[in-house]
Write a structure and sequence with these properties.
With about 140 residues, the chain is α/β, with parallel strands linked by helices. It has a domain of about 80 residues: Ribosomal protein L13 (Ribosomal Protein L13p, Chain: A). The chain is about 30% helix and about 20% strand. It contains 5 helices and 6 strands, in the order E-H-E-H-E-E-H-H-H-E-E. Strands 5-2-1-6 form a 4-stranded parallel β-sheet, covered by helices on one side. Strand 1, helix 1 and strand 2 form a beta-alpha-beta unit. The longest helix has 13 residues.
């Protein structure tokens, strides 16, 4: 019996939708990263982008445990000397809740060209509405 190898021509992609309301950020992000990579499929190959598309709604209602909302910081640099900027998690959830989930998932994907292709299949929306109804997304079992 031969082992079936996955390549980009034989990949079948599905669309899943997740309602992030009252879900813990880290547990949600690990599940999303698994689906984006394709590890939930029996045809998983680590060098091929065989994952599915994931739509996340209600990103503004995601939960964090402990004191992370007041203690966790996000760092970015402007590119100028002394340009290090910090943003607290609770501020980021108020202004850009989609970036919180995207950044958590990005940290769990492989770095390089493969990871950049996989993160493009993640669609995050702060509210309940999303423009992907034509793809007929199924609810992602968590």
């Amino acid at each position: 019996m031969k082992t079936a190898h996955l390549n980009k021509e034989t990949v079948e992609r599905n669309w899943f939708v997740v309602d992030a309301e009252d879900l813990v950020l880290g547990r949600l992000s690990t599940r999303i990263a698994m689906v984006l990579r394709g590890k939930h499929k029996p045809t998983f190959s680590p060098h091929v982008d065989g994952g599915d598309f994931v739509i996340v709604t209600n990103a503004e209602k995601v939960k964090v445990t402990g004191n992370k909302a007041l203690q966790k910081k996000y760092y970015r640099h402007t590119g100028y000397p002394g340009g290090m900027r910090t943003t607290m998690l609770h501020e980021m959830l108020e202004k850009h809740p989609d970036r919180v989930i995207r950044r958590a998932v990005w940290g769990m994907l492989p770095k390089g060209p493969l990871g950049r292709r996989q993160i493009k299949k993640l669609k995050v929306y702060a509210g309940e509405e999303h423009p992907h109804a034509a793809q007929k997304p199924e609810p992602l079992p968590l």
